[in-house]
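User: Just a sanity check before I run the rest of the batch. Below are the structure tokens for the first item. I only need the designed sequence back.
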């Protein structure tokens, strides 16, 4: 009986699929992650895995995607601490940001080798 229950549980987990694919409100468009406000998400080339190095004036131009809680965290999405004590989302260990000069729903701007789009 125990073997049947464990098999049914494993099948149920398999059929349920993976956890949420992204934090609440984050969507995907053409392989790029989009913040809840409709702006593309970027990573910062000077960050290290799990550490945000964009603070103060940098964070004014490149606002971090702040995390209220960890709903949506899974193997790819996690929450990391910031120097100011706030918490932000990271995709595959890389903190993610929007660009203040982007307009929601329009083509991404500000993309460079230092600020590449966060892509799936």
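Assistant: Here's the designed sequence for the first item:
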């Amino acid at each position: 009986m125990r073997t049947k229950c464990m098999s049914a549980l494993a099948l149920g987990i398999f059929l349920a699929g993976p956890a949420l694919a992204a934090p609440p409100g984050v969507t995907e468009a053409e392989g790029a992650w989009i913040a809840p406000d409709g702006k593309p998400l970027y990573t910062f080339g000077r960050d290290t895995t799990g550490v945000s190095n964009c603070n103060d004036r940098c964070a004014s131009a490149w606002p971090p995607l702040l995390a209220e809680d960890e709903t949506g965290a899974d193997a790819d999405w996690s929450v990391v601490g910031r120097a100011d004590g706030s918490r932000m989302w990271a995709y595959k260990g890389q903190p993610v940001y929007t660009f203040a000069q982007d307009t929601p729903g329009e083509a991404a701007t500000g993309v460079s080798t230092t600020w590449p789009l966060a892509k799936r």
